[in-house]
Amino acid sequence: MQDPMTDIHVLVVDDDDAIRDLLCEFLQDNQLSTQQAANHTELWQALQQRSPDVIVLDINMPQRNGIDCCRDLRADPQTRLIPIIMLTARSSSLDTIMGLETGADDYVGKPFEPLELLSRIRSVVRRARMHAAQDSALVEMRATLDGLPEPSHLRLIRFNQWTLDLHNRTLIDAQNACIALSNAEFKFLRFMLLHANRTLSRDQLMEEMHGREAGPFDRSIDLQVSRLRQKLENDPKHPSMIKTLRNEGYLLTADVVYVK
Predict the structure, then answer these.
(1) Is residue 148 part of a domain?
(2) Could you tell me the residue range of the domain that residue 28 belongs to?
(3) Which of 23, 73, 87, 241 is most deeply packed, by most CB within 10 A?
(4) Among candidates 120, 53, 119, 36, which has minimal Cα distance to 86?
């Protein structure tokens, strides 16, 4: 039987021909299939040919850079769910923060060890497939319990005065206004809702989001919490829903209900 973690198709987007060639050769040597793109235009041409399991996207490209490409990918319904790993300058925390804010799933600082990138690729694909299976299982379970003929109707999670639309990946407020979420924000909020009223450590959240433990200087989890508070809390500086528990982690307090 084929290892499902070798059945992965990677789109590598980098304006440096040598880096693209070397990276694709390495990935192919590890039984992954690859495509290449040198810029924003070639990225979208490649996507027309085949939808990848993950996109490895360099942040520093001329004209439309990796941040622009990531933003465009997340805005398009056809590509918004594809995992993205950003290649950033190791010394630039701003690049990392911008990439995660735009919707990247993970990042690797240049220069990097190819084996590290391979591990990140397998991790984000594994999580994406697991989340897709969980969503499908949840919908099927609720449909069976409620006797619904079409399980696709069950795509909402209600909590406090909010609704999370699992199908469209949007947040809906009490006035029925839709609030867009980045891919990372959606996954983070969904995970916290599935574990509502339970303390989640930074390492647990980091493992869920990026497949590794949090480093001492890694602010990506704090950033996601801050961004969600800006959207969910009446007073983000004094949060009542997503609480910080000193030396423990974060706690989302809400009554969570799945509905049709």
Answers:
(1) no
(2) 9-129
(3) 87
(4) 120
